[in-house]
Design a protein that fits this description.
single chain, 417 residues, alpha/beta, Rossmann fold, Nucleotidyltransferase, domain 5, 3-stranded antiparallel beta sheet, 14 strands, disordered C terminus
């Protein structure tokens, strides 16, 4: 899970070949598995970026592998959700896109060659963080298990146990939310219908051919239908004040990577100014929905912006002759975390508190339940913060660089505190 990421992911990068082959234990190739995965993830509110090797895509089309013609049409989706192809390493492209967009990764590949070639991670992101983002593999404390979380059953992508929550809301008001949901559901049913017809095309070629053409046309028309709905809008300050508590608004600030301090009215104004300023850079996903690309501002840029805002506030209050110090806009959030509560929450996610376990799994589970403990949102390295909890938690680094934790043992005995 993305405990080190600045904001909860809103995008999923899909290792298309891995999904089409059914993961670790898959047999044969079927492009409908990828289309099913896209449908499942979009129903959870995520934008999806499928990645595939160009040679395999061409081979799939040449061999008339089910679904590959429709996969090829995904190139026409609105960026950044268009199909990405490469003549090089598709695994490397998956990793680069996931790091760039702070996105979940759907795969059951362990990225062994990439780990060996880039032992410190990809583009400044550690393997620990990449593992936290990866859905389909899981560290058990000693090695990387593959084939977990999802599977492919026939033509369908199926969750074994879904480790990610629904995508965080985009915080826009949509008077046609129900109608959009109906349109998406109808499209996904048509995708299933088209896939089922394809599987019978050889047996009933004359009868099926016109039905395939009609269903393909209907599927293509849904993007136009969705774009026809009135645009979502940014809530007014009164709507925010009426429908959100201050704690909720601060969570929204954290998602956007902007300071969360201040009174409710100040926080609301900050969110509105941020969203209005980024309205022109909204991204359209495959269904035509607007998704703000909050990942484009890196942390250094946000910190610099916060410092300037703080300086402006300080100058304004000094000019007015007030003796009250301006409230810092960044860096004081550490004081809001109760270390004892943090330690208890983290330890509660361990399968056995007396045994060593890789930090990524319990930390990710804790953050999914308690987003306020996203330490990187506060500019804090988890390893440094947890090392300060040495009276409760033991911390060590494994040979492969992964951090391990367990509850601190009582000296002179086998019992744990």
């Amino acid at each position: 899970m993305n405990s080190d990421g600045e904001r909860p992911p809103k995008i999923v990068v899909i290792d298309a070949l891995n999904v089409c082959h059914g993961g670790v234990n898959g047999e044969g190739w079927d492009g409908r598995r990828l289309l099913s995965a896209i449908a499942v993830l979009e129903s959870m509110g995520y934008g999806t970026i499928p990645v595939i090797g160009l040679w395999r895509l061409k081979q799939g089309k040449k061999m008339k592998t089910h679904g590959f013609n429709r996969i090829d049409k995904l190139r026409k989706r609105t960026a950044p959700y268009n199909l990405r192809t490469t003549q090089g390493s598709d695994d490397m492209l998956v990793l680069e896109l996931a790091v760039k967009h702070t996105a979940w990764i759907i795969t059951q590949d362990g990225f062994g060659e990439e780990r060996e070639k880039y032992p410190r991670g990809i583009s400044g992101t550690s393997w620990e963080e990449i593992d936290r983002l990866t859905v389909g593999t899981e560290w058990d404390g000693n090695w990387l298990n593959k084939g977990v979380h999802w599977n492919a059953q026939g033509t369908e992508f199926v969750w074994i146990d879904c480790p990610i929550p629904d995508a965080p809301p985009d915080f826009l008001i949509d008077e046609f939310e129900e109608e959009r949901a109906w349109a998406m559901e109808a499209k996904h049913l048509l995708v299933k219908l088209h896939g089922s017809l394809e599987s019978k095309a050889k047996e009933y070629e004359d009868e099926i051919k016109p039905l395939l053409k009609i269903s393909a046309q209907l599927i293509g028309s849904f993007s136009t239908l969705d774009r026809g709905f009135p645009a979502k809008r940014i809530p007014t300050s009164n709507e925010m004040n009426d429908h959100y508590k201050l704690t909720d608004l601060r969570e929204l600030c954290m998602e956007r990577g902007i300071p969360k301090s201040g009174r409710k009215a100040e926080v609301i104004q900050r969110i509105i100014e941020f969203d209005e300023g980024n309205k022109g850079e909204a991204l359209g996903n495959s269904e035509g929905d607007s998704v703000y690309d909050h990942s484009r501002k890196d942390k250094d840029e946000l910190k610099e912006w916060a410092k300037k805002e703080y300086a402006k506030q300080t100058k304004a209050k000094t000019d007015k002759g007030t003796e009250k110090e301006a409230e810092p806009m960044i860096g004081s959030e550490l004081e809001e975390i109760d270390k004892a509560d943090f330690a208890d929450a983290l330890l509660s996610e361990l399968a056995n508190q007396s045994k060593w376990e890789v930090l990524t799994k319990p930390y990710g589970a804790m953050v999914a339940k308690r987003p306020k403990y996203h330490l990187k949102n506060l500019g804090i390295k988890p390893s440094e913060f947890i090392s300060e909890l040495s009276d409760t938690i033991e911390l060590k680094t494994r040979k492969d660089g992964h951090l391990m934790i367990r509850r601190k043992r009582v000296h002179g005995g086998n019992n744990i505190e």
